[in-house]
Amino acid sequence: MPTVVEPEKPGDERGALLAYLDAQRGGLRRAVYGLSQEQAVSTPTPSVLSVAGLLKHVTVGERGWVDTMSGHPADPRDPATRRNWEDSFVVGPGDTVASLLVLSDEVGRHTEAVVAALPSLDTTFEQPAAPWDRGGTRSWRWGLLHLIEETARHAGHADIIREAVDGKDAFTLVFETGAAPEPDWSMLQE
Predict the structure, then answer these.
(1) Rounded distance between C-alpha atoms, residue 168 and residue 170, angstroms
(2) Quick one: residue 11, left, alpha or beta (phi over 0 = left, psi -120 to 50 = alpha)?
(3) N or C: which end of the chain has fewer CB within 10 A?
C-alpha cells in the first residue's frame, strides 16, 4: 500500500509519475524497517525471495531501465546481463540493509535527475528485444509507468514476506515509520 501521494500540480505529469514511483519504493524501504540483517535476508515463504533481495532487485532493475531509457541498454543476449539480473535477487556478503537503502536512494535521485532533464515525457528510447518483450520504440512515459508497475509488484511481494518474518503488515509499517499518521478510526464508528 502506498502512502498518500499528493495530487500533482496541474500539468505536472512528470512530478506525479515520480511521486508514485517514490511511493512504491517507500513500500520496499518500509519492508526492511526494523529488521535485523538475518531477518531481512530470510526466506520464510516457499519463494526464494527475501525483503532485502527484493529491495536490491528493484534498485538494480530501476538503474538498468534508466540506462536503457537513456540510450545505454544492456544486451539481453549477453550472459553477463543475465547473470546481473539473476544476481540482483541475491543478497551478497557485502550487501547490508543499510548499503541497499543507500543504493536505493542514490538510484532514485539519479532517476529523478534524469527525468527532470528530459525535454518531454514523449522523448523516446529503443527497448531491445528480449524473451519477455519484442522490443521497439517506447516513450519515457511508458518507461516510468513500467518502473511504477514493477516496483509496485515487488513491493507487494515484500509485504507478504515481511508479514511472514514478524507479523508486521504494510499498514503497521506505514504508521510505525511515520510515512502516514495513524488514522482517526473513531470516524468509522456510529
Answers:
(1) 7
(2) left
(3) C
